[in-house]
Amino acid sequence: MPKILDAIIKASKINKKLLAVLIDPEKFAAENYSYFIEKLPEAVTHIFVGGSTATTAQSEVCVDFIKTKTNLPVILFPGDKEQITEKADGILLLSLISGRNPEYLIEQHIKAVPKLLNAGLEIIPTGYLLLDGGNQSAVARVSKTKPIQQDEIELIKNTALAGEMLGKQLVYLEAGSGALIPVSEKVIAEVKRDLNIPLIVGGGIRNATQLKKAYRAGADLVVIGTAFENGEFK
Ligand code: 1GP
């Protein structure tokens, strides 16, 4: 039973908004995160673990620790197959469909199969779109792909819908970690209009106003990393 995905779909149907905190295993140190995880805002429903360049060991230590501190679902959001650890509950199996680099469209996934086969992780096929967030993102740098400009609404929308038609179970609109400009309400609303699967939005969301705007525009789940990590979320 795909428990994590089912819960996200159910929440989306009743318009219950979800919030994920993103933890980068590379920046993780138990002594800094202990308090952080225990004191997460009540609205947080999921923990995402991933970064652009973390190793398997870093990812494992991070997930292990988080699992001792919370019962929230811990979901891998890996930048690389090396970050896959069976200690998590699930994985967003991301296909970078905004880009044209075969490595992140299919190669990484093929290489990940031996690790995923018997891992017992809930695998959630996710169409991942990198949009321009006003600065160069780690995703763009590592994946060597170009983000889609946020005014290319038709392209963004059709890319997301193509993802759904290909069988992705979630669409993730990403402005990049630390983006100066989060995904706009217009983009979120246009994508959401014809999409039948839950919509995740992340990148550059730093305060409650931006969070509310993303929800109001149609995001089902918002991901916040940097602002929580730095204790700057207002
Ligand atoms: C990055 O969308 C996430 O993949 C979170 O971005 O770190 O800017 O919150 P921030």
Q: Report the CATH superfamily.
A: FMN-linked oxidoreductases
What percentage of the residues does DSSP assign to strands (E)?
15-25%
Largest sheet report:
8 strands, parallel, barrel
Shape: globular
CATH architectural name: Alpha-Beta Barrel
CATH-assigned fold name: TIM Barrel
Q: N-to-C SSE series?
A: HEHEHEEHEHHEHEHEH
Unreliable runs, pLDDT <50, ≥5 residues? none
Comma- or semicolon-separated keywords:
single chain; 234 residues; alpha/beta; TIM Barrel; 8-stranded parallel barrel; 8 strands; 40% helix; globular; binds SN-glycerol-1-phosphate
Short description:
The chain is an alpha/beta fold. It has helices at residues 3-13, 30-38, 56-69, 102-117, 138-143, 153-165, 185-194, 208-217, 226-229; strands spanning 18-23, 46-49, 74-76, 90-96, 122-130, 170-174, 199-202, 221-224.
